[in-house]
Hints:
- It is a single chain.
- By secondary structure, the protein is an alpha/beta fold.
- The protein is built from five helices and four strands; from the N terminus they run E-H-H-E-H-E-H-H-E.
- The chain has helices at 25-35, 37-58, 72-83, 97-103, 106-113; strands at residues 2-8, 63-69, 88-91, 118-121.
- The strands form two sheets. Strands 1-2 form a two-stranded parallel sheet.
- Helix 3 packs across helix 5 (106-113).
- The longest helix has 22 residues, at 37-58.
- The chain is globular.
- The relative contact order is 0.16.
Amino acid sequence: MAVVLTVWEPVRSWAPYDPATILSAPLSRLVSNELGLDEAVRDLAREQMERGTALATQAGFQAEGRLEEGKPWREICQVGDALGAEPVVVGARGLGRVESALLGSVSTAVVFHAKRPVLVVPHNKDNRPPETPAE
């Protein structure tokens, strides 16, 4: 069984110590409820989860979708522990070192904090399956 876990983080919880949100955190708390941003983020996360579950099913996995709320790296580690995942599989966005330092890297945080084996699948910039070598 494959679990397609999608974690969304409420806009109102973005903290100013996160490099990616340091400028927008105070404003996001004020407007998130008024504009319904958390609901929009949750709906987008649900759509991503459904898409991921469909892709996993098409690839031949018996897949189940799961939507969680919180810090993505923390939720991934906790769900991986609860499920006894061997391994926890996460994708990487393909950011460089500077971009990762500024925006943060969920996959790096999972590798660092997980108590289980972690497989990081690199981002495929062309969004195509890798070519197989000719025989």
